[in-house]
Every structure is written in C-alpha cells, then in structure tokens.
Design goal:
Length: 144
C-alpha cells in the first residue's frame, strides 16, 4: 500500500485526518499474519475501519452539501457501496464456519482494502479538492 503523500491532501483538516486514520487502519490490517489466532484482531480492525468510514462519509457528504458539490449523489452512492463491500469483507474474515480459511479470507481482504481506499480517494475524493479550495471558510466551519 502506498505511503501517505502530500498529493493525497484534500482539505488540510478533518477529511485528511480521517483519510490518514483510514490509511493507517488498513496498513495495520495488512501487517497482520494470516494465522487463525489473528482473526479477532483482524475483525476488530475492520470494524473500527467501518465505524470510521461511516463517520467520515457523513462528514464528507455534509461538506459536499454545503459547497453544493455537483457529484454529491454519485459520491454518496459510492460511499454506500463501499460500506456494503467492507461489511462483506468483515463477514468473511470473521466467519469461523466457512469453506475458506481465515488466511484465504484475509489474503483476499489484503488485495481489496488498498484498492477500496486508493480507488475512491484517487478518483472521487481528489476531484473534491478543487471545490473545497474555492470555499475554505465553509470547510473550516463544518470541521468543528
């Protein structure tokens, strides 16, 4: 997974803080071994990731509404799909009764999570950067 870079910065504030925390949770998940005894730890990290993502998506959509972001509906739909995918990943990783081993489920999650995060950030969130730059006072007020 890519290291955090200056090019990933969107608002120099709460949205970037959320993105950095999301990035770190994914890195921590990827660093876990695929041994079955890591299942509870892996599940806990993924659940924290989902909780943070839900909070972040709500914040981001609030910002988008405030600045009248023209792609809000599409962005919101992406957020919903991402939560569904993340919930499915959690279900597969947490499943003790499955045809697939924890190691296999984790290896699939290891492939999906960086893509899940980077694809959305690069294609959807970075497009937001120009709109946010035009309304910095609105963003600072909402970040409180």
């Amino acid at each position: 997974m890519l290291d955090w870079r200056a090019e990933m910065v969107i608002d120099h504030g709460v949205l970037d803080d959320d993105h950095r925390q999301t990035h770190e949770l994914i890195r921590r998940f990827l660093a876990l071994p695929g041994d079955d005894d890591q299942r509870p730890r892996a599940t806990a990290l993924l659940e924290r990731l989902r909780d943070l993502s839900l909070q972040h998506f709500a914040r981001e959509e609030k910002v988008q509404m405030a600045i009248r972001y023209p792609l809000l509906d599409e962005h919101r739909a992406q957020h919903r799909r991402m939560i569904v995918l993340l919930s499915e990943i959690i279900e597969q990783v947490a499943a003790r009764e499955s045809a697939f081993s924890f190691g296999y489920a984790k290896s699939k999650a290891d492939q999906l999570l960086p893509f899940w995060f980077m694809e959305h950030l690069a294609k959807a969130d970075l497009a937001l950067k120009l709109h946010i730059a035009k309304t910095p006072t609105v963003i600072r007020a909402l970040a409180r």
